[in-house]
Each structure stands twice: as C-alpha cells, then as structure tokens.
Design goal:
Elements: H1 7-23, E1 42-48, H2 52-60, E2 65-66, E3 69-70, H3 76-85, E4 88-94, H4 103-123, E5 128-132, H5 139-152, E6 157-161, E7 163-164, E8 167-168, H6 175-183, E9 187-191, H7 211-225, H8 228-231, E10 236-239, H9 246-254, H10 260-263, H11 270-276, E11 278-280, H12 287-296, E12 302-303, H13 313-325, H14 331-345
C-alpha cells in the first residue's frame, strides 16, 4: 500500500514544511467574527476548506486537480460570506485528504491540517465545526492522530476517503481503526476520491462527474458486505452526494445477501444497513435524486450539504431552491433537513 515519493519531491516538501514552521503556522489565518443565529440557519455538513498552504503542498506533489477539475480558490472570508448569503449558520468543514506517498510525511501533513481546522473552530466556534483527516494507509499513525484530533483538539468527527490506494473502506487492513471509531461512537463523513486505476473508464470526463458517485457506491457496498457495519453499529456514518448511486441501486446491491456465505455478514439485511446511514444533499437536491433517496431512508437521515467551494456559489443557490421547491418535503421536514437533523449529531452548535 506504500508508494514512495521520489527523493526530490520528498525533500521539497520537507523544506516547505520546515520553512512554514519558522514563519508561523502552515495554515495561518486571520480570525473573522460574523455571528449567526441558528433558529433559521442551515447547518452545512459538506463544506470544504482549502487553505493556501494546503493547495501549495498539493501542487508540490503534482496534485493540481481534484476530481478532474482545477482546485478552486478558498478563504475563510469567502466561506463566511457564502454562509451569510444563504443563511448557513454553521458548517462542518473537511479537507479532501490525499496520501502523499510517504508515511511519516503524510502523518505530519494530517497533523497540520487538523491543527488548522482546530484554530478555525476556535476562532469561530458557532460558525464552524470540522472533520479531522487521518494519515491512512498507516493505521497506527491514524490511531495516534485520531486521539490527538478528538481528545486534544476536540474536532467533531472524522472524514475518510472512499478508498486509499485502491483499498476500500471495509478492507481488513482498516479493521482496527473502525473498531476504535466504533468504541468512541464517532461520526464518520465519507467523501469520494478518484477510484483506483483499474476502475477508471476511458471517458474524457471529470472524475467528479460520474466516478465519484460510483466510488461512494463501492465504499458503501464494501462496508456492508465486509461486515463492518454489522461489527460497528455505533459509528454514525454520513455519506456524500445522497449516497452516490446507492438509493437507485439499493435493491440490486441487496441481492448478494441471499448467498449463504454472505448472510452472516449482513444478518439484518442490506436495506436495513442502508437506512442506518445519513445522506447529505450536496449536488443531489434534484427531484430525480431526492425521490429515490426518500424511498430508501426516513427524512431524519437527510442532511443539508453544499459542497462549497467545489460547487460554486451559483450551485449552492440552485441546490437551496431545489430543496425548497421539492414537493416531497413539507415545511417541518425541510427544517429538519436544513438544521434539525444535524443538530442531533452536533449538539454543541446549539445556542
């Protein structure tokens, strides 16, 4: 699972981090206060942060695009402005984390990412929460970072990619990590990344357009059929983009449960595990997606998500209008999706 960086790239990153350490925080920011009230505000559980130094580190290892698209501009003030414009009272932030090809360097990078997130939350405790990143595939380092992020930094949960170097969530290599997350009854946000090369098609399309939703589907299916969801019932999973293609394919995915060797992995039945997950509305607020999702899960398991800044301001506006205009949600249900359901997961954001 380890894919070493070449020596030149490694030395560049070491030099970069060393320089940042002498000039202050690698992800420094100026605090900006802009209070909000939660009575009418939304809580965005799918909101990315991309500090300049994070982008610089990605570029230094040749990672200039995410999901086939250029990395967008981001700043704390831009996030706050978007949130104010669309009555988003609070956002639970996450960073699209990538293994840097070297285990110690990835562990250091994860620590710096999480320290930045903690400062952001400290500066704006009612506007931001954050999911911590972990330096997978190194499970031992991930367990150490988990303890630091949750016990010392008091972050709000963990973000995990759908796969790490082609090993999907639910792989035996990650069992120890999931056991600890289950012991802690943790919230885990699952976000897609590019699939392994063998899963790539030759379509000349951004991977975020189609491959991301299928990678989410692969990860969820593997979590179910590996028995991870059965073994870890106390983890509260939030899956991106309304679960990718899972709502539409739910019955088809469930067919494998009838094979005798799979029954012990899914004793409650596949559909019941799917109903247990939480699903965000990021880039999935059209009636085509919502009707399928609504057939699968109770509205109490649907959460508002913007996918900012990968989904720009215009798409946030469209998503909110689509949710308001969707005839399948009454006013009370829409309020629950906007903020009520999230407050049950993140009660510290209550006034």
């Amino acid at each position: 699972m380890q894919n070493s960086l070449n020596r030149r790239s490694f030395l560049k990153l070491v030099s970069f981090f060393s320089m940042a350490a002498t000039t202050g925080s690698i992800f420094s920011c100026e605090p900006t206060e802009n209070p909000a009230r939660l009575e009418l505000g939304r809580i965005d559980v799918h909101h990315h942060i991309l500090p300049p130094d994070y982008i610089a580190a990605m570029k230094r290892i040749g990672k200039n695009v995410i999901g086939g698209a250029a990395i967008p501009n981001w700043s704390i003030q831009n996030s706050l402005s978007l949130m104010d414009n669309y009555k988003i009272a609070a956002a639970i932030t996450s960073m699209p984390f990538f293994y840097l090809g070297d285990l110690p360097l990835s562990a250091d990078f994860a620590r710096r990412c999480n320290d930045f997130s903690a400062r952001l939350v400290s500066d704006h405790p009612k506007r931001f929460g954050s999911f911590a990143v972990l330096p997978l595939p190194d499970v031992e380092a991930s367990l150490r970072e988990l303890e630091h992020a949750l016990d010392k930094l008091k972050l709000d949960g963990i973000v995990l990619p759908t796969n790490v170097g082609g090993y999907y969530l639910g792989a035996p290599a990650f069992d120890e990590l999931f056991s600890e997350l289950n012991r802690r009854k943790e919230i885990v946000f699952i976000h897609p990344i590019d699939p392994p090369k063998e899963c790539f098609s030759d379509l000349k399309l951004p991977t975020s357009l189609i491959e991301f939703v299928f990678d989410t589907t692969r990860a969820i299916a593997n979590l179910i059929y590996s028995g991870t969801l059965e073994r870890c019932p106390d983890i509260q999973f939030i899956v991106s983009h309304a679960g990718g293609t899972v709502p539409y394919l739910a019955w088809r995915i469930s067919l494998l449960q009838y094979k005798w060797e799979m029954k012990k992995k899914v004793p409650k039945g596949v559909i019941n595990y799917l109903k247990y997950l939480y699903y965000d509305t990021a880039l999935s607020s059209s009636p085509y997606a919502l009707r399928s999702l609504q057939e699968l899960v109770d509205a109490s398991h649907i959460l508002f998500g913007s996918d900012y800044p990968f989904a720009p301001d215009l798409l946030t506006s469209v998503s909110i209008k689509d949710l308001k205009n969707y005839d399948g949600f009454d006013e009370q249900t829409l309020k629950a999706i906007d903020h009520g359901n999230a407050l049950k997961l993140f009660p510290r954001l209550r006034l």
